Amino acid sequence: MIQLFHVSKYYDRRPALSDINLQIEKGEFVLLMGPSGAGKTTLLKLLFGAERPDDGQILVQNRNVARLRPSDIPYLRRTMGIVFQDFRLLPKKNVFENVALPLMVQGASTFETRRKVAEALKAVGIDHKKDHRPATLSAGEQQRVCIARAIVNSPIILLADEPTGNLDPHLASEIIESFKVINARGTTIMVATHNPQVMAQANRRVLMLEQGKLIADPKAGL
Ligand SMILES: Nc1ncnc2c1ncn2[C@@H]1O[C@H](COP(=O)(O)OP(=O)(O)O)[C@@H](O)[C@H]1O
Ligand SMILES: [Mg+2]
User: pLDDT tens digits, residue range 102-136?
Assistant: First the structure.
């Protein structure tokens, strides 16, 4: 599903990632941990084609994302859902409209849109708020709307960067449970976080980055 071979990425000749080797199977739920500056966000950006590696190979669903033409990147993204720490919801649209956005961009029918949005909202337990505007929701609810928007296209892979970063432990806990539900339906998930609560509660494979190096990965014997 996701494979990295000797991947390095430099910013101003300083390595953000050094010689990363990694394999993630279909259906896994993986946590990418490590302190601030360890390279977590950089790794996610490489996976969705926002950055390119300086060395090595990255295969996502058997496609070499390091060599994708810019015109191929939208196709890659369509198979991925992405969740960021800051919500980036449209304030003047309600929950339904925010989640429907990726479908409307693709020209989905009204019927299809209603069905898929309802399903995504249900998966994260927020279907009862579909007519509300983002500002009237709690931070945890807003983040769940973002997750619903990320999964509305039934992505094969869900990437999340510090999805609990602004949330208190109770709300963070709800987010983690949402990820478990989504994962149980077959979506491969990679969550970057420095929150130990997420690691403890998710109880899944943990990849540990430190200064751009992969220093722990149980599957690779690290
Ligand atoms: N666009 C950028 N330009 C220069 N340096 C960057 C850029 N993005 C990240 N870095 C550097 O790369 C390293 C890894 O950053 P990042 O991947 O954001 O780490 P994390 O997400 O684990 O906090 C840090 O030293 C950071 O300063
Ligand atoms: Mg980061």
Answer: 999 889 999 999 999 999 999 999 999 999 999 99
Over 90: is that where the pLDDT of 78 sits?
A: no
Choose one of 7, 8, 9, 11 to mutate for the ligand 1 pocket test, by most ligand atoms within 8 angstroms of C-beta: 11
Distance from Cα 195 to the centre of ligand 2, integer Å: 12
Q: Dihedral of the CA atoms 180, 185, 187, 189 (nearest 10)?
A: 10
Where do the structural domains in the chain lie, given as residue ranges? Answer: 2-220
CA distance 220 to 222: 5
Domain 2-220 has CATH 3.40.50.300: yes
Distance CA 25, CA 2 (A): 7
